Amino acid sequence: MNYIPIPISMLEVGKPLPVDVWSGNGQQLLLRKGQPIVSEQHRDKLHAHQACSTATEGLAWQQAYERMVHQMLRDGVDVLTIATAPMPSVILERDYVVGQQFSGGWLDIQEVLRGVLYQGGLAINPLPRLAGLERKCAALLKSDTDDSLFCLFQALADGTLGYCATNALLCAVVCDLAGQKLGLDPMQRQTLRRAALTMNIGMAREQDSLARQSEPLTPEQRTLIADHPWRSVDILVTLGIDDEDVLDIVRWHHAPQSPKAMSRNLASRRLLHLADGFVARMAGRKTRMSFAPVKAVKSMVMGAEGEVVGVGSAMAQAVGFYPPGSYVQLTNGETAVSVQRGERANTPWVVPIVDKDGMPISKYVGRNTATETAYAIAGAVNFEKVRVTINPEKVRQARERIPR
């Protein structure tokens, strides 16, 4: 039988545990299911005995934790409260379904990834979980790139979902698509995806908190932001990640041209650095509105020279100036959501959702901004200015009617 460590420091004193607790490698039963940790000294004893659970129960417990965090976010619980939440004391039957966390779409992946990032060095069985997440991301992206971009850019505008996991997923997708444009080989792109998914594990909880903060950054927060690449690497090494290229990209993703970094990963680091900045600009904050995608791209390459301009151009070509999931104003006065990239970066297919009088449009119809003059794009619209809730299923149906 396989055993995995349990996150002892995340267990609440006095609350029953939903798993049997064993000493290292299952040598001795330390606590039966339903028994609590009775004191801090008891917790220290579990540490000394390298407390673990069976892999089946441990993974189900992890799934219960992810489900709990997701529900707390949905309920509007403050991120700081979520960050200190202990492991749940109840595991539901559905938490034991093997592979359930990878059977859905992008929002399901986001939920699982957020749980792993939040737990950091205490994550249960993290390497197989991260590998499964990466495979599912690659499969969804290959199956329908435009739908993938639509889902993730829409998620970026939804503050109830948190920011850290959405940022990681969008950076991984943008890097993969732009990496293809730049001629990175499949192995380089795989390494880059792995780095993107985990680069902020050293400040995941704080990242979600900062995204909702209305006050200026404190000196301590600025230090955390500056140091988090190194903290992330330390956590990844603790988790068992020993890929030198992944660790190099994570360590220097804020300083891609550092002379201390590996020269062979320069293109990957530069791409991840720009993708991270692009996604951050498109995410709204309490202190500023979100950037429109085309403005986010321009702000990154303005004043840049050489390779940086080429990377920014590749990103724009890969996702478009108006990527699926973002909003535009049409020349006829309507507001539309981009649903599919067009032949050029500035001519996506869109679905009008608000008419010129500000009324919601109930019938979703795909429009080609390149050939239909009345539906040409007049400009981008920030996420915050759109008050209409989009029906994703109606968007998919409209996309299915677009000529291929």
TrEMBL record:
Q: Name one Pfam family in it.
A: HD_5
Q: What is this protein called?
A: Phosphohydrolase
